[in-house]
Design goal:
Length: 604
């Protein structure tokens, strides 16, 4: 506490004038189109911006770091940021910031880390960024940037990490950039050369040395998780306990305390606040229930709509510290097709997670539970959902470090925002809590009909178990049916949706396969392609299933024909083997009632 007081006094009494810093940051707030309930404590009339949320300063009152991840900004970048000559970290990933990168950013002579990933920035990359002498990390992936990589990037002496993936970039890549410990140029039109198996991407091995990889690495944050945790602790110390500012978080020490601290981008709610927001966890506010517990609709005091997941049977030998480490790892997975974690609440007996409320609920609801007058998912939206969910899972598997395996991919866990964009939820929770009270009779985590066969038999999951579940989810999108439906027994049909679809595919009976709610308003070729991708994803052997990055490419029309031809050949052989074994079993069954056959098969 004494250190905090010393720090604040140093900021307020510092002879270094911070007016220009406050003016620059206030212009940044306005240019980003921050809403009335965002950055409300960024008050330009205060002496120093060092007390503002998401700002870190040194003891002299110089702004060192600005971190505003996934805040929902839709504006542009302010050129005035270029006056912050002590700024070392500028991190704004996961927003929808548009426009160009200001050339004034080339004046940030102290900048170590610039992260503008997953926005909608356009225009060319300013060549002045190549003049930053201390720049170590540059992440501009997943934008709409065009043009070529500036030649000045060959002169970046300190660069260790550069990621420009999934932009409209063209031309060659300066050789200097391949010397960075980590780089990613996938998803562009850049020429990567032929020197390595996958020259467009590399990652770091655990020993810290560079190695080439077939898996591109595009993290949602520029700071490693361990360092991020340390940074959060520093932030807590520097900012101390404050009252009355937006973005504050609630600490529930004894169940009655209402003190507040800063905890990164997550908000820590009190039990009382979530209890009030859900009307005492009223059954009338239940949105759904699964293996992890119930989800409640809630409204915060400022009118923000939320979804509160109340975890069931939470057990952890390491207690709250382990829980908080896990949610921090989950919270740094930032992607437009992943559900963003707003915050959490812990008490001696409760663990709750808080998410934004998804206006259009889940894919399962829209397929099978809509009420009279509600909108049916048309074919165009189903295609977008399939691709969006695939991109979210690809990010978890191939762009997170460590990678995250979902373990329960299904239509009920793919949520829909106000624009019907797919948002994958519940990712990472299987790692977070070990729940025994599920719909499965074994200790395997998941939902019957969606669980890969190798997971059922061994209990071991991998990213390929997620691929299987995703394939079943595609079949749900096409048919509108559940993964298991016992009503089909009455028609002497297959209970499992996968077997049902395989049978109809062999019969080329597409019309009987597609959801009747579409009223035949769909593209037959597109339906066939989605079915083909689904069947490739649900092959019995995990080694035969595609990776999620391949799934994304196939949904976009690349490489499906070749994989499908291979699948058909394997499936014919598999079907013949099945029929041969089935005939053998029938013969054995007949033999039980045929004494002559029994005697013929006896020992001789």
């Amino acid at each position: 506490m004494l250190f905090h007081l010393f720090f604040v006094l140093a900021c307020l009494l510092s002879p270094v004038s911070s007016d220009y810093q406050g003016d620059a940051l206030d212009d940044m707030r306005r240019q980003l189109n921050a809403s009335d309930d965002q950055l409300t404590d960024w008050n330009v009339n205060m002496v120093s911006p060092c007390t503002w949320s998401s700002i870190i300063c040194d003891a002299q009152g110089n702004v060192l770091q600005v971190t505003l991840s996934s805040m929902g900004f839709t504006g542009t970048l302010s050129p005035k940021i270029g006056v912050l000559k002590y700024l070392s970290v500028l991190s704004l990933p996961g927003n929808r910031i548009r426009g160009q990168i200001p050339k004034e950013f080339g004046n940030l002579s102290s900048l170590l880390n610039l992260n503008l990933e997953n926005n909608i920035l356009s225009g060319e990359i300013p060549d002045v960024l190549g003049n930053l002498p201390k720049l170590q990390i540059l992440i501009l992936s997943e934008n709409n940037l065009s043009g070529s990589i500036p030649k000045t990037f060959s002169d970046l002496p300190s660069l260790t990490d550069i990621r420009l993936a999934f932009n409209n970039l063209i031309g060659s890549i300066p050789d200097r950039l391949f010397q960075a410990g980590r780089y990613n140029f996938t998803g562009t039109n850049l020429s990567c050369g032929l020197n390595f198996p996958n020259p467009c991407a590399s990652t770091l091995a655990q020993n810290g040395k560079s190695r080439k990889s077939n898996t591109p690495l595009v993290l949602g944050v520029a700071i490693p998780s361990i360092f991020l945790l340390a940074l959060i602790v520093v932030t807590v110390v520097l900012k101390g306990r404050r009252k009355g500012s937006h973005g504050e978080v609630f600490v529930d020490v004894s169940g009655e305390d209402d003190r507040r601290i800063a905890f990164g981008q997550l908000r820590r709610f009190s039990w009382r606040e979530l209890q009030v927001s859900t009307d005492g966890f009223s059954e009338n506010n239940v949105l759904g229930q699964g293996g992890f517990g119930k989800v409640y609709r809630g409204v915060l005091s400022d009118g923000t709509k939320i979804a509160v997941k109340r975890l069931t049977d939470y057990q952890s030998a390491a207690g709250e510290s382990a829980f908080m480490r896990e949610i921090e790892l989950i919270s740094v997975a930032v992607h437009r097709n992943l559900l963003r974690l707003i915050g959490f609440c812990t008490t001696p007996s409760e663990r709750l997670l808080v998410y934004p409320f998804m206006q259009n609920l889940s894919v399962a609801y829209r397929l099978r539970e809509i009420k009279s007058g509600e909108e049916v998912l048309d074919w165009g939206r189903r295609k977008r959902i399939a691709l969006g969910a695939a991109r979210g899972l690809e990010y978890l598997h191939e762009h997170c470090n460590p990678k995250i395996i979902h373990r329960d991919v299904k239509a009920a866990n793919v949520l829909l925002d106000e624009d019907f964009e797919a948002v994958v939820g519940d990712f990472g929770l299987a790692k977070l809590v070990d729940v025994r009270r599920t719909s499965v009779t074994t200790q395997v985590r998941g939902t019957m009909g969606h669980i890969a066969p190798e997971y059922l038999s061994t209990g071991k999951s991998s990213e390929k178990t997620d691929v299987f579940g995703y394939g079943i989810m595609l079949l749900e999108l096409v048919t509108g049916q559940r993964a298991i439906d016992f009503s089909r027994l009455e028609e002497a049909d297959d209970v499992l949706l996968l077997d049902h679809v395989k049978k109809l595919e062999r019969e080329k009976n597409l019309d009987a396969m597609v959801d009747g709610n579409l009223k035949r308003n769909y593209d037959r070729r597109e339906v066939e392609m989605m079915i083909q991708v689904a069947l490739l994803c649900t092959q019995p052997s995990p080694d035969d299933r595609p990776a999620m990055s391949e799934v994304v490419r196939m949904l976009e029309g690349e490489g499906l024909a070749e994989r499908w031809e291979e699948w058909q050949q394997v499936e014919v052989h598999r079907r013949q083997e099945y029929e041969r074994l089935q005939g053998r079993f029938l013969w054995m069954e007949d033999s039980m009632y045929n004494q002559d056959a029994i005697e013929l098969s006896a020992g001789r």
